Records
---
Amino acid sequence: MKTLSKIFLVFAVIALFSCDEHLTELNVNPNGVDPSTVNPNLMVPTIITAKWQGYSDAAYQGGVAGVMQYVQKSGWGNELNKYAWNSDQDWSGHYNLLRDAQHLYNRSVEEGMEFHQGLALVVRAQTFGMIADVWGDAPYSKALNALNGGQEDLFPPFDTQEAIYKGIIEELKKANTLLSKPAGDYKEISASADVLYGGNPAKWRKLANTLMLRYYMRLSVKLPAYAKAGIEEIMSKPNEYPIFSSNDDDAAMSFVGSSNADSWYANVTYSGNGGSDFTRIQLCAGFRDVLVDYNDPRLDVWFNPVKVQIKISTEHTENDVVVDGVRYLRPEYLVEKNWVIYNKNTWVADVNAGKTIIDTSEFVGLPIASTTGDGSAWNLNPNPIQGGPNVHNSALDDIYKAAKGSLLKARLISYAETCFILAEAAQRGWSAGGSQKEWYEKGVKASFDTWGVGSSYSAYIAQPGVAYDGSLKQIITQKWIANWTVAWESWADWRRTGFPVLTVGPKGTREAMPLRYEYGGNEISRNKDNYLSAVERLVETPFTATDGKDSSWSKFWLLQ
Amino acid sequence: MKKGILRTLFFGLFSLLAVGLYAQVSVKGTVKSDAGELLPGVSIVVKGTNTGVITDIDGNFSISAPNAQSTLVFSFVGMKTQELPLNGQTSLNVILETSTIGVDEVVVTALGISREKKSLGYSVGEVQGEELTRVAQENVLNSMAGKVAGVQISQTGATGSSVSMVIRGASSLTSDNQPLFVVDGVPMKNTLNNVTNIGSGNLADYGNAISDLSAENIESVSVLKGPSAAALYGSRAGNGVVLITTKSGKKSKGLGVSITSNTVIESPYKFLDKHTRFANGQRPFTQDNRPNNGLDYYVVPVGDSYWVGPEMDKGMLAYQWPYFNENGVPEATPIVSHPDNWKEFFQTGVTSTNGFSLSNSNEKVNYRLSYENMMNQGIIPNSDLHKNTISLNSEFKITKNVVFSSSLNFATSGADNRPATAERGANPLQALYDINPHIDIEDLKNYWEPGKEGIQQNSPYTLEFNSDGTYSKVDRINNPYFLAYEVNNSFRRDRVYGNAKLDINFTPELSLMLRYNHDQFNEKRETKIAPSYTGDTKGVYGLVNMYTIEQNADFLLAYKKTINEFNINASAGGNYMYSYADNNTAQTKNGGSGLIVPGVYTLGNIAPSNLVYSSGSSQKAIYSLYALASLGWKDAIYLDVTARNDWSSTLPAENRSYFYTSASLSMLLNNMIDMGSNISLAKIRGGWAMVGNDTDPYKLMAVMGNAGAWGNETRLTTSGTMLLPDLKPEIQTSWEIGGDLNMFNDRLRFEGTYYESENENQILNIGLPPSSGYVSKQINAGLISSKGVELSVGGTPITNKDWNWDVNFVYTKNRTKIEELAEGFTYIDLWTDAKGGAVTRVGDEIGQIVDAQMVRVDDPTSPYHGWPIIDDEGWDDSEGWQTALNNGTPNVIGNFNPDFTIGFQTGLSYKKWTLNASIDWRVGGQFVSQTYRYGESDLHTNRWMERTVKLNNMSGAEMAQYLKDHADQYLLPGGEFYVVVGGPTADMGGLEHTEDGITLNDGVFMPGVEGYYDDNGKFVMVAEHLGDEGTPLIRYQDFYGWSYTQTATFDADFIKLRELSLSYQLPSMKAIGIQNASIAIYSRNIVLWTKAGIGIDPETAFQASSGVQKSGIQFKQGIERYNVSPWTIPVGFKLNFNF
């Protein structure tokens, strides 16, 4: 008995004293890198790919590409075709990216890696800029602080849209300074990790300053003096503020193309759904009308002509017949069926009159908000399938089927856009290092070069309507064309200037284009008080209807 | 093991009591069992005194009674207590009868200690081995369904899929709430990490590891329900403990051989409620009224998921898959439905389970060796499951006081193919149910395109005719046979578990048990997908290797003594637990470039840029010390107390150690006061307990995640979950009271328990506003309370020489509520899906399902107050559920938990015939069916066609009047949800509608009102949408309540015939060495009735899913996604021989 008690006691004592260290060792996670010691280079591709992919996916095939009338969809397209925007626009993706960008920044400060700091700041500033562009007021100065643990860190207050824009411009200035040294002076740049610019600080520096131009111009109407001063400061000190100077500087990321995750969106190589992700994206009439009006060669780069063109003709006795790849309709049959040929000036009235629109062009686009259906039966499609192809509507050019390609890039901002910003600055009478016409023409030329049709530039620019007439409308319209797959920027420009002038149909959620995103449920439900005070600052419009203030048709500060 | 302890106990008691007693009348005798066995350790008490002895090893006793008329009371665990008046005799030969049910029942409790059930202060559920094997199930957990109050069993799908067991409702918000399984003292891993997804949309459920157990080997199962019962198992016992005792050789007299053979054949009889009326397409076109495709006939668009195309069986000609006649020329044929497609796809399922056991015993050694083989062929073609188990239980008496015993088990489970489930993609059931009946499934049986075997599946597609006379094949969909045969998810799990144990009796009072337990398994999962699967057209290969081990070393020092009326048992012990798991995966990238050479399934056949691989491991250890004491007084009052301290590696050093206790009391009123002979047991009991709980490894500090390589570049990302470095253990506190009453010689039995529990400091992830930079934060907070009632009423209405009839009802009701969360957090979401979610707010019951809200006129002064607001195009508007939740009007549409459940078991025997039945009834609760949501939004169901309001025989004005007259039903919130007036055709109520230049009768509208609020918040009506002039019509195809969960939410009530069996005991065949033999015929799991009536078993409305609650694999309860195995009627045969 005594021996046993001793054994028992010994066991207990051993257990109590030796176990602690053993148990602590066991709980050291062997499966991942410790964030406090991570090499910043391992996070560089993370934030670049997340930023560029996230930005350009929607700008190519999301609601914003629909609202700016580049494309429509033939199935699951209410978001594009009808502004049926999800009332719950979650920004988690942006703030998750910001968390990584913040960590990259913090780690590179610890390691004294200034290139990485600058890169992280550029991504951070652009992401906050985008949040302000899309939602308006948002947590900024107190955002991303949850680790500090206070109530204001866990439930951050919303900064005003104005404060965010001004804040990110300061951050971009800081990035400009951080990135101003020769490449050799930086610590541990990994060229391969920088999947955008191959570890070239000068390019990142230009990107920072070019983005600054973008955001100054964003404030051109609301804070004209501030915007003017900012742009003039940059343009007057080209050595201090280098900006994009050629297409080589474009912030356009190429794809790897090894699987769906690192390939061009909705490609037919990897994406499932039997290619339907691709076929559902179709040309929109609004974009087509402008491109066709000026014989724009880029149309042929971006879209295919229809497979079967419709012609109104008395050539055949049948009312509706397909002969040799052309569908012939007799004019009296159109009258009988209450069908009417598409006219860009009257189609809205025709839809309102209950008529069915027929488009007889070589390139056909579905007009926005023109049908109650999903768009798959548009233009007498003989095989209406949700998300399916339409022989009477233009599909994207075949280059967009691929997983990667020299033209398939995630584009954030380009030299062409820079030229148009400066053209606008000059047009507004600001000192922009050139005349508005020079910058306008450089912009068009840059876009033509980007899309491989530079040889057609001279003929194009000489046409009436394209030849510069000194109007803001022309600058923004050309900027809109050049910003194909950069629809976010086109939307921002349209809200600020009203250009390009776009016609919208009566079948949308509202008979007007939306102005912003509604806040997302995760933020609303978990940060309600701060949300409510931000919503108070929105101003309703006649189109907010029953939405209340937090509506896609409400005006945030920039538009008030 | 059980008997070992008992023997030790009674030797001890005997030695203690046999001395020092004074004598008046000396009585001697022997005690035997009804089977003729001499019984050592039987307790003999002189009634009305404290005098008592126990029998020696040979069953002999000697006792002094006060006088010759005294009465002796003989009691022994597992035997009926017998009272014998001496009537002057001094020599007695007593035979004790085995008791099956009732007062003297012995159950296995914590740490494997056998206790008389009457002495327990808490509720223990019990299932005997024979009840588990009467009807063979491939997973033993299924056999427990309905048999124990407070236990809920659900299964994700058909044979071989995951089975969940939840005791007394979910107590933790972040774990899977599965109980701890302990087999002969070995804690068994029942991991629910059983879902692997390799290849796009190829989710395979490999079933739980607990299915490695063979039901035929089980002697009994004890379900320790509350923390009182489980307190001694510590951290892992918070969800209850299932103690399984396997059969041993002890009962065998000489060499015994037993052979069992089971065969179950099942055939499907009930399928989803899909219509066979319209072909694929968006509108029910006719020959004269269709889009012009330049052809003489319509082309049925196979790739269009809608089923509102031309009506079938009306003679309409169309080009339709497979399009070509024998000359290879496209030919239009009549559109004909094939209503038997679903039935034809399935095959008869066969499961055979065969096994034998050998057992033997003598004074020194006893053993039992058993082998079992299970082979299953599923009802889905090319699906299977198989299992082999070998077990050896043995015991050696080394000396009189030292006994060595061990249990060794080897199990190999596997399958060549587990069909994909619970997803859209590789799931053959989804492909089958989504093929429109205009296609004849016969045409799909040869699932390779001729000449392209191994390269291109023969699958339905749309033929796109080009204007130049050429055509192309577009919009291919998957052939369900191809998915069944060429998407193969195989697995093999080799498992070894068992223990080695030494029992030493130092003195009759003092004994020591030393034991080592071991459980380990290797599991390999392999996925092979042939080229041309639409999700991954170039083929897929993936390999997962998993290794898991858990070791436990424990000791228990036990002391027992009886002093006068007091019976004392005290034990103290300790346990060291260590577990380790790793996982290595290599596979083709999902949505990647596939395999280099089609059909070669090796890692070497994957291009380096297309290969993804990962590995991970985790380990954990817990040290524990514990003690328990039990004090009995006069067989009338029993008090148990326990205490335990754990040290867990998963918690920070300062919070690592946690101590918790329990106490329970049992009072046998019938032994305290005379209650007459009609009452054989009247017991009240109560218990209080605390259980601490740790967490998974590595929860204190986040590491970087890998977002996958971009080309050759590694992408590391920070975790969106904030961890808590100073995590505390969860503490669950509970109490229960209950009573047991047995009357009329145990012919009426009642047992009831009420319990409450509170789970504090829950370790849970709670959502943060995204702008804080984090998605969620791990917190140590909250209070979750549960309360519930468990009742069981049993009776033996008839018992005589030939007849015996037993009935038993089990009633279970549980409510779990969130009482508190952390500051600033008002709700927790268990899952979000189907536009809604399972969201519980503080103060509400867990399991609530919330939905988006239909926007209605909320101006109370308006005559339209409550009406849906419809826009000028005719669409309704919905408000996101999260927004609704925060606007203070959470739209709760249901709860996934039942109101209560009732299980009913009955057994009727006549001579050698026995009929057993078990029926389960669930009342209340709802589930969401994603299958119906997808299917109905594509207009596949009869239900939706029938659901629309058919008023097309009325004029517009009449419709408007009718709808206004029935506003309660069609316009106001209390009426039908999501009202649609119209239908697909004129005879289905459709209204005339022109779209894209074609007029058909497929118009519908939603009744409501168009308008806006003026500046004073008054609703201004613009137009009534009631079918009158100006009501915009929308085609039938477009109008489904996709934005609402409620359109696909169903009542979960059901009645299920869990088991039905008829067995016959064959006459003795001793001449040929057969001691006894029986044959039986049975059936199981027949869904008798569901309230929803949609062909989906509500029990399958839960999914194993990773990342729910942001941690590990858990179950999403109350939602179903293509878990749609048809209902079957299995017929089973069982043969049993003992030699």
---
Amino acid sequence: MTTPELARPRGNRRIFGWLHRHPRVKLGALLVVPAGWFGVIYFGSLALLFAYAFWSLDPQTGEVVKQFTLANFQRILEKPVYGTIVIRTVAVAAIVTVVDALIAFPIAYYMARVASPRRRALLFMSILLPLWASYLVKTYAWRILLAPNGPFDWGFKLFGFDGFSDIFGISDLSMTVVFIYIWLPYMILPIYAGLERIPNSYLEASADLGAKGGPTFRRVVLPLAMPALVAGSIFTFSLTLGDYIIPALVSNTQFIGNVVFASQGVAGDIPFAAAYSLVPVGIMAIYLLVARHFGAFDEL
Amino acid sequence: MSQRKGLISAAIVAILAAACSSTSASPAASNGPASQAPASQAVASEPPASAPASETPVATIGPGEGELNLVAWAGYVEDGSNVKEYDWVHPFIAANPDCSKVTVKTADTSDDMYTLMAQGHGTYDGVSASGDASNRLIDRAEVAPIDPAVIPDFKDLTPFLQSPANNTVNGFHYGVSHGWGGNTLMYRTDKFPTPPTSWDAVFDPAKMSAYKGKVTAYNGTIYIADAALYLKTHKPELGITDPYELTQEQFDAAIALLKEQRPFVGKYWISYADEDANFESGASTIGTTWQYQTNALKGENPPIPVEAIVPTEGMTGWSDTWMLSRYAKHPNCMLKWMAWMVTPETQAQVAENFGEAPANPKACAILNTSTKPYAIPNFCDAYHVTDEAFYNAIAFWKTPVRDCGDARGNTCVPYDQWLAAYTDVKG
Amino acid sequence: MSRILLRVATGLTLGFLYLPLFVIGLYAFNNSRAQSWPIQEYSLKWFGEAAASTSVRDAFVLSVTVGLEATLLALLLGSLVSLAVHRFRFFGRGALSLALVLPIALPGIITGMALNASFHNFGVPFGTLTIIVGHATFCVVVVYNNVIARLRRSSKSIEEASMDLGADTWQTFRHVTFPVLRTAIVAAALLAFALSFDEIIVTTFTAGTQETIPIWILNHLRLPNQRPIVNVVALGLILLSVIPVYFAQRLSSDTSGAAAINR
């Protein structure tokens, strides 16, 4: 016999039934809060910042003149120092990404395919743990490590090598080392996840077909791991591109972020800061589109 | 199972409620009782276009609003957590229980402070502004004028600090002077057995080649004025009179000097600890500094061998004012704080801890007999507290504007161009 | 041979990762305020000072509060979006994943300046709420990625079966969908909390005088005398974080186990 519930839906079920028959409304209900949040708060703010890039600062009053102008972009293109800073920032970001990938791959491979489950768990934890240590404190620790008369310098001096602090110390090299260090876990984890997902059967099939370790690695593992590599590179590249704290602490050099930070802080020149920050935005937009093509978004 | 979920949802609601209540406390206070009205007559929520010619200075202090949010140099709002003998926050709260919560946002440069105040209407009640921020804040109507009668110790302030140009405009007092100091030249005595006496130790490439990479300089756009000050003495043909008001030719010369200096600078220091760490390790051995760093280095265990001098060319400096924000949500507490900061006891502590000349000479009696960690004998003589000639010889930070203020008219380089040039120098 | 090389590489990498942490731990016991090398004297006094410091406690409480609230918000928003993207085809669906990753992909200073400018323009005072808004915004993508990865791995037929058997949408969600998502949600929550806890750049632009732990550290690293206490606090955080790291690892091993099954 039919139960009364099934015969005539009541209460919640009526609503759910109606929603089921009107999937668009259901979709809307799901999306309204996040879309509202992202649309209004985040994209609204970004749009406002984007608008600032086309405004200018009246030096006399300190007010933002809300009239369209390309003066900020002119200034970026005219003065060579801004281009130099962009090239420097992108170059370091690229170096950091490549080196991190090279360092991350072996340990990720070991974790994913060689280590025993218990060891894998321990390794996973040991890679996660440094992420929880404060970014600032880790940077300061590197300052101590690389400083003149610091542990490394002292150690090298014991062996008669005096030049460590001239090479490292406060320098672009030190800064690059710190960047490589800080973002390394962000590269290891996606590669590990990607490598782990490769089914054993693929590797066995490759071996069955006559490929030994090297070709299997080049032709099977690497292409399958590529999306994960690219996903990890999004982090290392983007985080280096936009950083201003590590350059300020460990080196004497300016990154895009330092100029942006100084502009909005020193001169209250948010229009110029916004305009200059469109450069890394543009760079990242291209990078992300390329990354999506590689399928990296599934590996984040 | 459902009981646990119920607990979880209750916890979530509680947390959200707690966060909401802590952030809504401030707006509620500003809509509070009429007793706050007297202090709020100069406190607005709509910005006036510029400092109005006729304003009503704040003339009374009502009851405190319960909290105080400040923007200040690090070291100006001490509660004993840095060096336990230097604490003027807890005594302030003890004396003013209706201002029981004091929070501070510290900043590294005047520019940061200006931006914080300009962007954070309603977030901060007041600021300790140096001259290169104070006039901008006044011009842009960010701060409110006060009636000096509201500050009991105002009449005791050193005469030349009662109405200085950096905080008194058109007869209106936009705050109370608090202390001043200079940007001295610090060097490691073990690396410079013959002490330097001139700024050429950091500006002359011939001299600097012996210690290339060990020179340090302030990471602030205002440092261009230090170069200009040097050129005032060493290139008199440029005719520099005011290192902050430079014609294009003078400005370009200063920038050229800084570009010459650049290869020798190992680090432009961004904070006290940055410079300290560099002098400790020997990464920096000579450069411009504030007394705070010198005190800290000498106070270490074992002390770092440094000395700081005023070179023959003179020095740039800063003269600080506590100012009340026009958008302050707790103006009464801010005024109480301002009054507190110029009492002799507090002035003595601040002066010693930071290493600056106090604005209230009555602090000297306390300073000269102090036994606190940073005490020095004859403090007030050493810091020239009442020496007007010495004060006038310092080129205090101020905001460069187009109007040179003299016969040159409106031909000087304004501050917004200083930043672009400084960015170029650092490369 | 290659195994040995891999082992060596792993060991070296781990050493590299832990070197600064070791330095932090070492200097937490340094008797002197100076951060010079070698350490002359060791002492426990900074631990006492850190324990007595009210500002540390306040910063910790604020960081935890902000982290929890931002995570909850991110969970809500991220889950809603993942369900929508997984179940429906709609205009702009492909662009959505790109849009969500922007808060993390774009430099923090841009997100920070943008939010700062908005809050300023609309007269919103900077405080705990504005910090939470900033954090939730970049945590959403973390939740979204975890949840949608799990949704994609689970089969739709279970939900359809549940509905066939008479459960309504809410019951299906409660008894069928949610348990499948549970570990992904917890893993995402842990990651989001970690992101929020250590975030500095966006926070400096959206905070007033509030101090989260990273801001506290930034402020105290400015002052020469405070560096030893900062080392103690950092060491404490590292040790404390073993707990969530352990849980994060347990959950992701569940995840990978589930993934292996579904292959």
